[in-house]
C-alpha cells in the first residue's frame, strides 16, 4: 500500500467510493454535450448551483452555437445578459471571453489535448479567473486527465470523517487523493461526482442526514448525533 499524506488511507478513500456508489449509483458526470461545453460549465459553476448554470447555458444556446468563436463574436453585454442566471454575470462573461480567447490562441481542443497534463494545467491556471478547482474540472472532465478535483464538499466530507482538518492547501489534498485512487480517469470522475451528490443530499453543511448515511460507521461526526457535533 502506498504512503498516503494527510492521513488519507487508500482503503478508506476507496471505501467511501464503494459506499456512495452503492447508495447513489453512477452519476454519469459531467453533464455536457461536448468537452468545450464542459469547460464553459466549469467557469459558470463557480460560486453557484448547477441548476443556475443550466439556465444560463440554455439562454446562451438560444442566442449562439456554443463555441469559442461565437462567444467572442457575441456582444459582451448580450453575453452577460445570457449568463445572468449564473450570478456574477458580468464577471463570468469577462472570464468566459478571456478563456475563449486563450482557447482559440492556443489552437483549440486539437492542440490543447495533445499537451501533457502538467503543461495543460499550467496554461489553464494562467488564464485569469481559472483557479485550481476549475482547471481540474476541465482537465478531468473535458481532457480526460487523471486529476482529482478538490472542492468545498470534499473538504467538508473528509473533515467530518476525521481525515482532513479542512484547511489544508489544495495541492496536498489533490496529491493525497491521486495517490490513493491512482490514475484511473473513470474512477476519478465518478468519485468527485459522488462526493458532490452526497454533500448535497446528506452531508449538508447544516443538519446532515447522518441516520441514513452509509458512511456513518466510519464517521466520527456522524457517531455523535447531538447538534453540537455538527
Ligand atoms: S455520518 Fe453524517 S457527517 Fe458523517 S459523512 Fe454521513 S452525513 Fe456526513
TrEMBL record:
It comes from the Bacteria. It holds the Pfam family HhH-GPD. The keyword RNA-binding does not apply. GO terms for molecular function: 4 iron, 4 sulfur cluster binding; endonuclease activity; hydrolase activity, acting on glycosyl bonds; metal ion binding. Residues 44-201 form the HhH-GPD domain. InterPro entries: DNA_glycosylase (IPR011257), Endouclease-III_FeS-bd_BS (IPR004035), HhH-GPD_domain (IPR003265), HhH_base_excis_C (IPR023170). One of its GO terms (biological process) is base-excision repair. Keywords: 4Fe-4S, DNA damage, DNA repair, Endonuclease, Glycosidase, Hydrolase, Iron, Iron-sulfur, Metal-binding, Nuclease. The keyword Repeat does not apply. Transmembrane segments: none annotated. PROSITE patterns: ENDONUCLEASE_III_1. Belongs to the Nth/MutY family. This is Endonuclease III. Its cofactor is [4Fe-4S] cluster. PANTHER family: A/G-SPECIFIC ADENINE GLYCOSYLASE/ENDONUCLEASE III, DNA REPAIR GLYCOSYLASE MJ1434-RELATED. Coiled coil: none annotated.
Amino acid at each position: 500500500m502506498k504512503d498516503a499524506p494527510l492521513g488519507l488511507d487508500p482503503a478508506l478513500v476507496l471505501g467511501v467510493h464503494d459506499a456512495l456508489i452503492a447508495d447513489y449509483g453512477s452519476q454519469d458526470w459531467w453533464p455536457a454535450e461536448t468537452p468545450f461545453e464542459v469547460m464553459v460549465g466549469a467557469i459558470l459553476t463557480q460560486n453557484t448551483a448547477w441548476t443556475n448554470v443550466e439556465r444560463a447555458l440554455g439562454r446562451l444556446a438560444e442566442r449562439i452555437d456554443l463555441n469559442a468563436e461565437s462567444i467572442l463574436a457575441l456582444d459582451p453585454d448580450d453575453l452577460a445578459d445570457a449568463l445572468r442566471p449564473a450570478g456574477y454575470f458580468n464577471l463570468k462573461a469577462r472570464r468566459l471571453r478571456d478563456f475563449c480567447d486563450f482557447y482559440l490562441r492556443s489552437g483549440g481542443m486539437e492542440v490543447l489535448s495533445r499537451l501533457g497534463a502538467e503543461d495543460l494545467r499550467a496554461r489553464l491556471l494562467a488564464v485569469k479567473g481559472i483557479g485550481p478547482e476549475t482547471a481540474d474540472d476541465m482537465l478531468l472532465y473535458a481532457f480526460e486527465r487523471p486529476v482529482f478535483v478538490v472542492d468545498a464538499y470534499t473538504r467538508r466530507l473528509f473533515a467530518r470523517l476525521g481525515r482532513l482538518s479542512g484547511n489544508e492547501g489544495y495541492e496536498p489534498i489533490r496529491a493525497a487523493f491521486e495517490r490513493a485512487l491512482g490514475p484511473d480517469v473513470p474512477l476519478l470522475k465518478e468519485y468527485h461526482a459522488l462526493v458532490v451528490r452526497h454533500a448535497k443530499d446528506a452531508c449538508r453543511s447544516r443538519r446532515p442526514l447522518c441516520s441514513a448515511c452509509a458512511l456513518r460507521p466510519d464517521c466520527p461526526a456522524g457517531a455523535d448525533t447531538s447538534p453540537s457535533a455538527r
